[in-house]
Amino acid sequence: MSTVAPTVQPAQSVDRPDVVIRPTRGGGSLAVHDVWRYRELLYFLIWRDLKVRYRQTAFGVAWVVLQPLALMLVFSLFLGQLLKVNTGSTPYPVFVFTALVPWTLFAQSLTASSQSLLINANLLGKIYFPRIILPISAVGSYLLDFGISTILLLGLMAVYGVTLHLGVLLLPLFAVLVVTTALGVGVGLAALNVRYRDVQSGIPLLIQLWLFASPIAYPITLVPEAYRALYALNPMVSVIGGVRWALLGTDAPSVDSIFVSIAAAVVLLVIGVVYFRRTERTFADVI
Q1: Which pLDDT tens digit goes with each residue over 159-173?
Q2: Nearest CA among 283, 280, 287 for reference residue 26
Q3: Is the CB of residue 98 less than 8 Å from the CB of residue 167?
Q4: pTM of the model
C-alpha cells in the first residue's frame, strides 16, 4: 500500500503596512504644544542625564564647581595679580567667579544640546517624540549644577566679606536669558551636527572665543562706549553685568543693552528652533 506524502503549501505572505515615523505637521513651527504633551519624557531624560553624569564618579558633585574654580584661580593669578585688572571695591576672585557661574551654565548647556542628537541616535529611528526634547533636556540637566555653583558663590562672597545685594531676587531672570541663548545656539548646531559631523569639532573653539568676547575676566568699562551697543548683541554681556549687579551691587547694565541682548537671544532661539523643525524629518535617515 503506497502512501502519499502530504504536500506543505507555502504560507502566503501577508502584506504588512510600513510604519513611517514622521514629525507632526507644522515642521517650521516652534512646537511648544508638542513639547508640553511629552513633558513626562522630558523630565525622564533630564533625570537620566543627571544619573549618568554622576554615576561611578569619585568626586560626585565636586565636578560641578571644579571648572569655574579652576578658571577663577587662573584668571586671578594672571589678570588679578600680575596685570592688576581694576574691579573697584570688589575682590577680583569674587568678581570673576560671579561671571563664571552663569558662563559655565551657558558653555555646558551649549555643548550638551549641540551633541544631544548624536548621543541619542539610537532613539531617533525607534519611536516618535518631538526631537527638540533632546536638546531641551540636555540644557535642563545643568540647572542643578547652576544652583550648586550659586551656593558656592554665596559662600565665597561671605569669605571675602562681600554684602549680598537685594537684586539677587532677579537672578532667575538672568538664568532664563542664559538658557534661552544656549538653547537657541545649541538647537541650531544640533541640527547641523547631524549632517555635518565636523561641527562638533568647532564647538570648543566657538565657546573659547565666546568666553573672551564676554566680560568675564575684565569689567565692561574697558569696552569703549561707542561699541557697547554692538557688544550687547552678545547676550552674555547683559547676563554677566546683570548677575554682578544682582549679587554685588555693581553698576547695572543699561536698559538699552538689556533689550538688545534679549532681542538677540530671542532671534537666536527662533532661528535655531525653526531650522531644527524644518530638518528633523531627515534626522533618522542621515544619522
Answers
A1: 999 988 888 889 999
A2: 280
A3: no
A4: 0.85
